[in-house]
Design a protein that fits this description.
410 residues; alpha+beta; Single alpha-helices involved in coiled-coils or other helix-helix interfaces; Heat Shock Protein 90; 11 helices; 5 strands; elongated
């Protein structure tokens, strides 16, 4: 479920705030009151099946006192049903508190079914579903069976007809079992997200270790050489050998400059994004926003003629475009990413194109993100094009960088 987002702007600025887009999905933690209200609203949709008890109250077959008591019981039942959403998102509450609404729902279902008739047997379906949600582990399955068994006992002892028992009994057990499956799916999704986060953390740690090793290898020998030559320079100066000392100082300067260049190269390689990494990050970000990714498989392959600098700039373009889709593509459901080649008058170019089916660019001009991306592309001889996608719907970002000639000059 996606909430309405601000009008599409062709760039992103700032962090996600209370007015930004956010997405809820099954099992997603609730962080704000707004998210809690959305979950309550979606849960309230299933209250439509309470139409049978409501209809029973409006037929006039009960006394006024019984009708009032039934309406109060139904209101309490609905409040207990919705309170489970709040309780499930308050992990600090004691365990008994979590089970009180479920027990209250079961008691109301039994009492009203005996007192008001077979139309109220529908309440057992809600009890079965809530038992599957609230009770932990295998107790959820036992709760579904217990709710269904209680329904059968009450239905038979209250002399409900066979058609009603079948029409309500099947949803009672099947809805409970379906919710158990959903709970398993949610738990699996949560474990996958945690595993993905752990893998990303390990990858970042490994990259930091690689950088530390590279810096040690680059600077260890150079600094040792500088220390030795500095000591030798001091001895030569003490001995009055100025020319020899000047030669050693020149060597120290050369070693220091080379070390500085090596460090800059190592850090630059550490910070430069790559297309496969950015594609994986894009897939995660878009999936979290419930946006389908249509990605060109060639993005993960090495492309002849595409240098490291040009590839890094295209990776920046992919990151910027996906960030725009996630933050400003209100209503977007699909994002296509394709890498191709084109021939122009001055040579061969690689073209990265990202298109979504959102509302398209707004009336505002390009922000800092797209301006910075345009500058990066210009530094490598590329260019940036942005605008509406096909038929004026969606947003298109097209980044072009030159391909280097091959060994044969092609």
């Amino acid at each position: 479920m996606q909430t309405p987002a601000p009008a599409r702007h062709p760039d992103h600025t700032g962090e996600d705030g209370p007015d930004g887009r956010w997405t809820t999905y099954p099992g997603a933690p609730v962080d704000t009151k707004r998210q809690l209200l959305v979950k309550l609203a979606w849960t309230s949709v299933w209250a439509l099946y309470l139409a049978y008890p409501v209809q029973d109250l409006t037929t006039g077959q009960h006394t006024p006192a019984a009708s009032v008591a039934g309406a109060v019981a139904l209101a309490v039942f609905l409040a207990a049903y919705l309170s489970l959403v709040v309780i499930r998102n308050r992990p600090g509450l004691p365990q008994p508190t979590r089970y009180l609404p479920l027990g209250l729902m079961a008691a109301i279902a039994v009492t009203t079914s005996y007192a008001l008739g077979e139309s109220w047997l529908t309440l057992f379906t809600y009890t079965s579903v809530c038992a599957a949600i609230v009770l932990p582990g295998r107790f959820g399955f036992l709760g579904v069976l217990a709710s269904t068994g209680l329904f059968a006992v009450v239905g038979l002892t209250s002399h409900a007809d066979a058609e009603t028992l079948i029409a309500i009994g099947l949803p009672c057990v099947l809805a409970g079992l379906a919710m158990l499956g959903m709970q398993r799916l949610v738990a699996t999704m949560r474990e996958l997200r945690e595993a993905r986060a752990a893998v990303a953390h390990l990858a970042a740690s490994e990259e930091r270790l690689r950088l530390a090793r590279d810096l040690h290898d680059l600077l260890g020998h150079s600094l040792s050489l500088i220390a030795i030559k500095s000591e030798l320079t001091g001895r030569l100066m003490d001995a009055g050998k100025a020319e020899d000392a000047r030669t050693q100082v020149a060597d120290i300067e050369q070693v220091a400059r080379q070390s500085l260049a090596d460090v800059r190269s190592a850090v630059s390689g550490f910070r430069r994004p790559t297309l496969p990494v950015e594609l994986a990050a894009a897939r995660t970000a878009l999936a979290a926003s419930q946006i389908e990714l249509d990605a060109d498989p060639r993005l993960a392959e090495d492309r002849p003629g595409l240098g490291a600098e040009e590839s890094g700039v295209l990776a920046w373009a992919l990151r910027e475009a996906v960030t725009n889709v996630v933050r400003h593509g209100a209503g977007a459901t699909r994002c296509a990413v394709h890498l191709d080649e084109t021939w122009e008058e001055d040579g061969r170019y690689a073209v990265l194109e990202i298109v979504d089916n959102g509302p398209g660019p707004g009336k505002s001009g390009a922000g800092n993100g797209l301006s910075g991306l345009s500058e990066r592309l210009e530094l490598v001889g590329g260019r940036l094009q942005t605008g509406p996608a096909n038929r004026g719907k969606g947003f298109r970002l097209r980044a072009t960088v030159p391909l280097r000639p091959g060994p044969s000059g092609q």
